[in-house]
Design goal:
Helices cover about 15% and strands about 35% of the residues. The chain is mostly beta strands. The chain has 4 domains: about 170 residues; about 100 residues, Immunoglobulin-like; about 240 residues, no CATH class; about 60 residues. Helix 4 packs across helix 5. The longest helix has 17 residues.
Length: about 625
C-alpha cells in the first residue's frame, strides 16, 4: 500500500498550531486508475487550541471528501509548542468505530519524541473504549503524528468521524501550553458501479471465418456519476474497442451494436467477454464484465452450391458430385502426423469435456486417448468398408463416413445395413449390445437410436453422391431397397426407403452442423450437402413421380409466379413469345420453397407462353 502525505508544515517562531490534513491512499476494494497528487481536506477543530492561528494549508479541496467503503484514509495531525511538554499523548474515538493504524511521527526538525507506539496491525477504536497511547513526548515541541483510518465496509453515505487527542494526566507542559482537541472530518461514502450486458445477435459462418454480431448495454448501477466510460471485447483480439462515452449519470444506460470477423476458431460456438470500465470522481476505476456464447448460424460459403441451385434428379446429383469431389484426403492411420483418429477426437469430442469423445449408437463418453484399446473406441465406417469401400482410396478415410464407436459395439454391428429391426426375426435382439442399449438388431440389419438416425442417413446419402465411380480408384456406391443386392461382392448399401424416413424424422441439429463445418474447415475442404440442404435428399433419392410435374401460373404484383412440385425429376422451364413456334429456356434459377420450385417472371411487356418438361 502506498500512502501520500502533504509536505511538512513550517511552524511559527512562537505559539503553536493544530491541524488535521486528510488524503485518500492507494488502498481499498476499487482499483485506482492513476496515482493521486496531494489531496487533503480542511477539517473542523474544537477543544483547547491554545494560542495561535488555525490552518490546514489545503487549497481548493471540496468538502466532504469522497471515499469508498473499505478505503484507507491517511491523517496527519500536526501540533507544536515552543516550550517543553513531557508525557504521553493518547487518542480515542468519539463516535463511529474506526480502524486505526499509527504509521509514523513527523519531525519538523525540533521535536523530540520517544517511545512511539506503532499500532500494527490496525486496531478498531470504539466509542467509550480506553484511551490508546500513541507517543511519548520528551523535550522539545511536539510536531506531528501520521495515522490511518479505514472506512468501514458498512459505512453510511455521510460519515462524520472524529478522533480526540490530548496529553495524559501524567504529562507536564510549561505554563500556557496545552495539547488537545478533536479532529472532526466529514467523509462522503460513494459506491460507484458499472454493469455490462451482452446478447449475441447473429454469428454467421462464412468461408474461412465467422462474422459475429452482438448487442449490449453499459449501465451506471452505482450512486455517483462516471466519466470516461469504455467497453472492450477480448475478441477478435484482447482489448478490442467496442464503445465509449464521456459520462454516464446515475441510473443511465447506453445500448450499442458491434460485430467482428473471427478467423482463428471458425468451427464452434463463440464465447467472448465484454469489459466495461469507468472513472468515479476520485478517478478510481470500476469494472464489469459479461461473457456470452454465440451460436453460429451455419451457412456454407457464398456460391458453394451455386451450380446446384434450382436443379433436381440426375442433374442435381451430378452438380453436387462435382462440388464435393476431389476433397483433401486425410490418412486413415499414420505413424507421424495427422490422421483420421486425430480428426475424430475433434469431430466427435464431448463439448462439455474435451478429454472425451461421444460414441455413435450409444451417446456414451469414452476417453479420447483410448483409441484402439480393448475397452476403448475405434473408427466406425457407417457405409461398411466391405460394401465397395477401397482400402486405398479416399472413400476409406472419408470423415463424413467415419464416427467414434465403442470397440465391442463396432464388432457387434459388423457390416449390417441400416433398417427397422424385424421383431419376428429369430435373431432379433434388443438391446443389440450392452454398450448400445438403445439399438436393436436382427439377422441382417441394425437399427440405431432415434438421435443417430438422421445423421447416419445423411452420411450415406453423401457417400452415394460423392463416389459415383468416375475416378479409377473410387467406387460407384449405390443406395438400394433391394437388400439381396447388399453383398460384400458389390457396392450396395441400404435400406434406401428407411433412410429417407430417418432423414425426415431426425432433422439436422447444431451438433451435426458443427461437425460438417469442422470437416470442411479443418480437414477435407468439402461439405455434406444434405446437412446444409436436407431438402435435397428427396430431390436426389426419392422415387420419381409417375407423371411429370404440373406447371402452375399465378399473378403477382407486376409479375407472374411460375411454380411446380419439386420432385426427383430434372425439369426444364421454357418460354415462347410467338405462340409456341420457338422455345427458349428460362434463365432464372428456380427457388425452392415448401417443396415447390418457383420462378418470378417480370417481363410483362409482351405476351409469353410457358411450358415445363422433364427428362426423367
Amino acid at each position: 500500500m502506498v500512502t501520500q502525505f502533504i509536505p511538512k508544515i513550517s511552524l511559527p517562531v512562537s505559539g503553536w498550531v493544530s491541524a488535521v490534513l486528510i488524503l485518500v491512499t492507494l488502498s481499498g476494494p476499487t482499483q485506482k486508475a492513476q496515482a493521486q497528487t496531494t489531496n487533503c481536506l480542511e477539517c473542523r477543530h474544537s477543544g483547547k487550541l491554545g494560542v495561535g492561528a488555525f490552518t490546514t494549508n489545503c487549497i481548493g479541496q471540496p468538502s466532504p471528501l469522497f471515499v469508498h467503503p473499505g478505503d484507507t484514509v491517511g491523517v496527519l495531525l500536526t501540533a507544536g509548542y515552543n516550550d517543553n511538554c513531557i508525557g504521553d499523548i493518547s487518542m480515542h474515538a468519539n463516535d463511529e468505530s474506526l480502524m486505526i493504524s499509527l504509521i509514523d511521527v513527523v519531525d519538523f526538525g525540533t521535536s523530540k519524541v520517544t517511545n512511539m507506539i506503532l499500532i500494527d496491525p490496525p486496531i478498531v477504536l470504539h466509542r467509550g473504549d480506553p484511551d490508546v497511547p500513541i507517543v511519548t513526548l520528551a523535550t522539545g515541541p511536539f510536531a506531528g503524528i501520521a495515522y490511518l483510518l479505514t472506512v468501514p465496509l458498512n459505512a453510511t453515505k455521510e460519515m462524520h468521524s472524529s478522533i480526540s487527542h490530548g496529553l495524559d494526566t501524567n504529562s507536564i507542559c510549561n505554563p500556557g501550553g496545552e495539547i488537545g482537541g478533536i479532529a472532526s472530518c466529514q467523509l462522503k461514502v460513494i459506491r460507484p458501479a458499472i454493469a455490462v450486458t451482452k446478447q449475441c445477435f447473429n454469428a454467421v459462418n462464412i468461408e474461412n471465418a465467422v462474422v459475429v454480431t452482438y448487442t449490449g448495454t453499459v449501465s451506471n448501477s452505482g450512486d455517483i456519476a462516471l466519466s470516461d466510460v469504455k467497453v472492450v471485447n477480448n475478441q477478435p483480439a484482447p482489448n478490442t474497442f467496442v464503445f465509449s462515452t464521456n459520462s454516464l449519470g446515475v441510473g443511465d444506460s447506453v445500448s450499442f451494436t458491434n460485430s467482428y470477423t473471427n478467423t482463428l476458431n471458425i468451427c464452434g460456438p463463440f464465447t467472448d467477454t465484454l469489459t466495461g470500465t469507468g472513472l468515479d470522481p476520485l478517478k478510481w476505476q470500476v469494472t464489469s464484465s459479461s461473457t456470452e456464447t454465440c451460436t453460429i448460424t451455419h451457412t456454407p460459403p457464398d456460391h458453394y452450391y451455386a451450380t446446384a441451385e434450382g436443379k433436381a434428379g440426375s442433374e442435381l446429383r451430378q452438380a453436387l458430385h462435382d462440388i464435393i469431389r476431389n476433397h483433401n484426403v486425410i490418412p486413415y492411420p499414420t505413424i507421424a502426423g495427422l490422421d483420421t483418429g486425430d480428426a475424430l477426437k475433434i469431430l466427435d469430442q464431448n463439448p462439455d469435456d474435451t478429454n472425451y469423445v461421444v460414441e455413435i449408437y450409444s451417446g456414451s463418453n469414452s476417453l479420447a486417448s483410448a483409441l484402439g484399446q480393448t475397452d476403448g473406441w475405434n473408427r466406425e465406417h457407417q457405409w461398411p468398408n466391405s460394401y465397395g469401400i477401397d482400402d486405398g482410396g479416399p472413400d476409406y478415410s472419408d470423415l463424413h463416413n467415419l464416427r467414434v464407436v465403442d470397440s465391442n459395439v463396432n464388432s457387434s454391428r459388423g457390416n449390417k445395413y441400416f433398417d427397422f429391426s424385424d421383431l419376428d426375426d429369430p435373431n432379433y435382439h434388443f438391446p443389440a449390445h450392452a454398450e448400445a442399449p438403445l439399438c436393436s438388431t436382427d439377422s441382417d440389419s441394425w437399427e440405431p437410436p432415434l438421435f443417430d438416425r438422421g445423421n447416419i442417413a445423411r452420411s450415406l446419402f453423401y457417400m452415394a453422391i460423392r463416389y459415383n465411380g468416375d475416378v479409377s480408384n473410387e467406387p460407384a456406391l449405390v443406395l438400394t431397397d433391394d437388400t439381396d443386392m447388399i453383398q460384400s461382392t458389390n457396392a450396395y448399401m441400404g435400406k434406401l426407403s428407411t433412410l429417407l424416413i430417418w432423414n425426415q424424422s431426425d432433422p439436422v441439429d447444431a451438433a451435426e452442423q458443427l461437425r460438417n463445418d469442422r470437416v470442411y474447415s479443418l480437414y477435407q475442404t468439402n461439405r455434406n450437402p444434405f446437412v446444409d440442404h436436407p431438402e435435397w435428399v428427396d430431390l436426389t433419392f426419392a422415387p420419381p413421380h409417375t407423371n411429370p410435374p404440373f406447371l402452375h401460373i399465378s399473378p403477382a404484383s407486376n409479375a407472374v409466379i411460375l411454380s411446380w412440385l419439386a420432385t426427383n425429376q430434372s425439369s426444364h422451364l421454357e418460354f415462347s413469345t410467338n405462340n409456341g413456334i420457338a422455345w427458349l429456356g428460362v434463365t432464372n434459377t428456380p427457388g425452392l420453397t415448401n417443396q415447390q420450385f418457383r420462378v418470378v417472371w417480370t417481363n410483362l411487356s409482351r405476351s409469353a407462353w410457358f411450358r415445363l418438361w422433364s427428362t426423367e
